[in-house]
């Protein structure tokens, strides 16, 4: 649920910025969605299983939080980096 809300916020962010700069807003918003989604999915497939394994051996609240929501932070970081680097 949180990941979906963040994805929609990133799409809105890219859309509004493209509109303000006179670019194609739908295409740019689609790119923003992909720049969030692809790193988040790759993180979930490649890194989360090992984090989940570590969390089962030491089930504190921090480990559970890290393996549950880090993909969102990775997606945000990648989308923000691409926007800063290529869409300014």
TrEMBL record:
It comes from the Bacteria. The keyword Transmembrane helix applies. Keywords: Membrane, Transmembrane, Transmembrane helix. The chain crosses the membrane at residues 29-48, 60-82. This is Transmembrane protein.
């Amino acid at each position: 649920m949180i990941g979906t809300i963040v994805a929609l916020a990133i799409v809105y962010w890219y859309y509004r910025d493209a509109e303000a700069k006179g670019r194609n807003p739908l295409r740019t918003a689609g790119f923003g969605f992909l720049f969030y989604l692809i790193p988040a999915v790759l993180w979930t497939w490649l890194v989360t299983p090992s984090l989940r394994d570590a969390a089962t051996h030491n089930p504190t609240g921090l480990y559970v939080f890290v393996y549950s929501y880090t993909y969102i932070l990775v997606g945000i970081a990648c989308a923000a980096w691409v926007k800063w680097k290529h869409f300014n």
